[in-house]
Amino acid sequence: MEELEHTCPHPRTTLTEPAIFARETSCDCRAPHEKLTIAQARRGTPVDRPVRVYADGIFDLFHSGHARALMQAKNLFPNTYLIVGVCSDELTHKYKGFTVMTEQERYEALRHCRYVDEVLRDAPWTLTPEFLEKHKIDFVAHDDIPYSSAGSEDVYKHIKEAGMFVPTQRTEGISTSDLITRIVRDYDVYARRNLQRGYTAKELNVSYINEKKYRLQNQVDRMKEKVRTVEEKSKHFVYRVEEKSHDLIQKWEEKSREFIGNFLELFGPDGTWKQVFQERSGRMLSYALSPRESPCNSPPRELSPLRSPSPPSPPARWHNARPSPPTSPKGASASMSSMSEGDEDEK
């Protein structure tokens, strides 16, 4: 079953597994590999096999620009089988320069791209006719900018002359060189970050002095962050105090207006207190002008013991009546003398 799948490979219909690694050739069909034109491939012919498209590159720091180029290569024709060649570290370091990712990491990155059907490891730098025939490649996809390398002004020149080249478009604003430039430009930031995450100075190739400097800068940054946090909390607290103060002032103004209104209503020119005062003043004035008689059951006024009024003389017809007892010694003597005089008169 496995041999049959490699004999007549078809585009993957599922994305649950990564792309396969290429063997010597993944197209072992015994039928002759007929050369196709671009017009024929775009019509979807031949119907018995997909169009085999080859795209190669370094694919260091695999990014969206790489993925978009492979997406374009995959969708060049209605039925496309995309083979991606990845150059080894040795060949890349020789002709282009040092890479960030190792070749194994770059192989695995390509295997997990959804547009790739097959990954060809240790791909050649220049595509020879023998290589194209060996892997039954119909077309080569790459951007149309001349790629000068290995002593040639354009390594795809002979592919273009053979009518087997199909251009793709580059994605502006993203490239491996741009990413490396960002890292080099912000080297101190990334070195400090990795030191903070537990990497050693030896792993980062950082000198002893720079290590101490980066660690001090990290401490300063942490202190700044704490200060900013405190400032934010203080601003929030001040805002809340201002908000509460505004509410209190507004309530105080409302209560003040209510108090002043009540005061004016009670003590104002036409207030309730003036009417009450006028009514009480009228009653007091009328009482002073015409006082009322004392009630009958009012207690008798006590007389002073020093000055007791003499009792009124009784009428003539009551002369025989017994006089009331005197209320004081002087009164008693006076009454005794009057009684003796009366007796003399009667005699």
Automatic annotation (TrEMBL):
- Part of which pathway? Phospholipid metabolism; phosphatidylcholine biosynthesis; phosphatidylcholine from phosphocholine: step 1/2; Lipid metabolism
Transmembrane stretches, start-end? none
Q: Where is the composition biased (Low complexity)?
A: 331-340
Cytidyltransferase-like domain segment(s): 54-182
Q: Name one GO molecular function term.
A: phosphatidylcholine binding
> What Pfam family is a match for this entry?
CTP_transf_like
- This protein's source sits in the domain of life called Eukaryota
Residue ranges, annotated region (Disordered): 289-347
Question: Which reaction does this chain catalyze?
Answer: phosphocholine + CTP + H(+) = CDP-choline + diphosphate
Q: Tell me the InterPro entries matching this sequence.
A: CCT (IPR041723), Cyt_trans-like (IPR004821), Pcy1-like (IPR045049), Rossmann-like_a/b/a_fold (IPR014729)
What keywords sit in the KW lines? Lipid biosynthesis, Lipid metabolism, Nucleotidyltransferase, Phospholipid biosynthesis, Phospholipid metabolism, Transferase
Q: What is its EC number?
A: 2.7.7.15
Function in brief: Catalyzes the key rate-limiting step in the CDP-choline pathway for phosphatidylcholine biosynthesis.
UniProt family annotation: Belongs to the cytidylyltransferase family.
- Its protein name is choline-phosphate cytidylyltransferase
Q: Which organism is it from?
A: Stegastes partitus (bicolor damselfish)
